[in-house]
Specification:
The protein has 314 residues and is mainly α. It has 13 helices and no strands. Helix 2 packs antiparallel against helix 3 and helix 5 crosses helix 7. The two termini are 35 Å apart.
Amino acid sequence: MNVYPQDNVAIGSMMHEEDLYNVIAVMLRREEDYRCHNYLEFDSSETNIDIDETCRTKMCEWIYQVVDCTRLQRETASVSMSYLDRFMCTSSPSAEKARLNRKEYQLVVLTTLYIATKIFEPFAMDASLVSRLSRGLHSEEEIVALEYEILVALQWRVNGPTQFQFVNYLLELLSTSCRDKSKALLYEHSHFQTELSVGDYTLIPLRRSVIAVAAILNSLENLPKDSLPLNERIRYAEVISMATGLDIFSPVINSVRIRLLDSFSRSSGYPLEQVGILPIMESKQSAANRKAADIDESPICVIKERAISLDLAL
């Protein structure tokens, strides 16, 4: 049974603080079994390579469109992408083919979404429906056959902690003196950043807890100074550090915070302002690179059948 909180589910009334710490400790141990590596770093001798970071980004956007248009939980998209990345890191024959062929990569994306809905949604997405999303590019039989290969390659590990789930548990450790409106903003901004991280290939080798902590710190820094006393903010930062064993001022956390803030600005059209209580130690070179970067409009989900057809995704 999945014991992790799902979309916008508050768990504070269900668990005591000691239990929260215990669950977070278990999640930290388990996430080590769900790590990924850079599977798009090909040998220079390989030719006819059709897959790159842009392909992955477009497929991630497509999955979120499908999830939104079919009213699935948005966390299902995150889980699906986790299956995709972990499978692509394996030596499975289909994974090796998918690393070099766009059509095979699309089939893996379809199948990981199919698996995620079967496990995490109250109603499974039928394989025939998933096949129709590809407009005949992949058959129901191909999807069902690859499902088993993926599960075996993943060693049937399909219930790993996600950054979204880490955010939910960590935010429940926040002091009760935090106003409800402020706490709602913390959830909203943190969840949004974790969703943005799903589409960022650069972040896939990192532990999900690192991304969650970076997202929470950015969200905490966005709260007006009068919404949560200074001493309580600092105390909560210490609680996060103690619960996860992470140095919240480490170079890794700082780098992830900067990347998430950039993604937030590009996607929302406005910056997630930081008040400076828990500052990011950014190098001059990083600042220059950020200033020079172009900020593009984020893609918008069009709720029509043709908008979620797979042949439009790549």
